[in-house]
């Protein structure tokens, strides 16, 4: 399992992927976000699913790009179309043998960036069949892998108007919620950001100890917020009077 998250806001794009790889009882780490292209004509691809399918699809994509003699795709639509063509070719070649070995052809991908002829950044979620959907302003994120645990905080707090600094915090908290609730997702994490106005990319890599302050702050304040929440009607009927405490907000 894995956790990959792509966010699109007014400021640009954010990508986060965990680095944990599990195979039976074996545990290792690997980078799950790939930057494709060069100079300003770059975009990211994050994947969940069989690593062999991922590697072969990316190899076919790089081969397709090399045939273009240094020219990048003109738009992100061109880029996602090229990726899905490579994915379908791999499916034609490998799906039958994989399923015969009881392995599912289950590669999902999040692809995001802004190329020369794009008027703004774009981000897509690609399914194993090669079809895709595009992120929109109403739901400004896409996630793949173990998506259930990190979704609530994004649905509650993230909007298209969220500034990049806050969106990065929400991306981390979404991952941390997932990491806390499942053994198949964990550190290290890779994060990328794209600033739309300046058309620049930034990348970073973090391990468990790098984010100790943020993790401890969240745990401490989440508990405190629950304590300070206004009492509900259940207090009168479910909590013995001897156990009731005064709500700090009403003091």
UniProtKB/TrEMBL annotation:
One of its GO terms (cellular component) is proteasome core complex. InterPro entries: Ntn_hydrolases_N, Proteasome_sua/b, UCP009120_prtse. It comes from the Bacteria. One of its GO terms (biological process) is proteolysis involved in protein catabolic process. Pfam families: Proteasome (PF00227). This is Peptidase.
